[in-house]
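Figure 3 (text version): structure tokens given as input.
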């Protein structure tokens, strides 16, 4: 399973939704899991991004569908990046030499 970092920014519509129903965050996490990804950790943030989520998915294609589905709703914008465990990264570098 591949890990992904998703940085999320709420749109104006998203901020209205969060104010009216803060539990929507957990509902969306359940929807993400139904799409085939798992939310490993999630943090609210200050600054240019509102949330940082660490997810796990079986493929880039699954994560692409998750991110696309969430963005189509019009309540968030995302920046999603694959992440590699540091030990695996070091191993891959050593393997090349």
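Below: residues designed for each position.
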């Amino acid at each position: 399973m591949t890990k992904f970092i998703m940085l999320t920014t709420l749109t104006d519509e998203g901020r209205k939704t969060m104010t009216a129903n803060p539990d929507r965050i957990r509902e969306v996490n359940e929807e993400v899991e139904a799409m085939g990804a798992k939310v490993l950790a999630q943090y609210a943030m200050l600054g240019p991004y509102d949330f940082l989520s660490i997810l796990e998915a079986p493929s880039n294609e699954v994560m692409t569908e998750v991110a696309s589905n969430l963005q189509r709703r019009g309540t968030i914008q995302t920046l999603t990046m694959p992440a590699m465990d540091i030990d695996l990264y070091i191993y891959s570098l050593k393997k090349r030499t």
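Helices lie at 12-20, 24-34, 60-72, 86-96.
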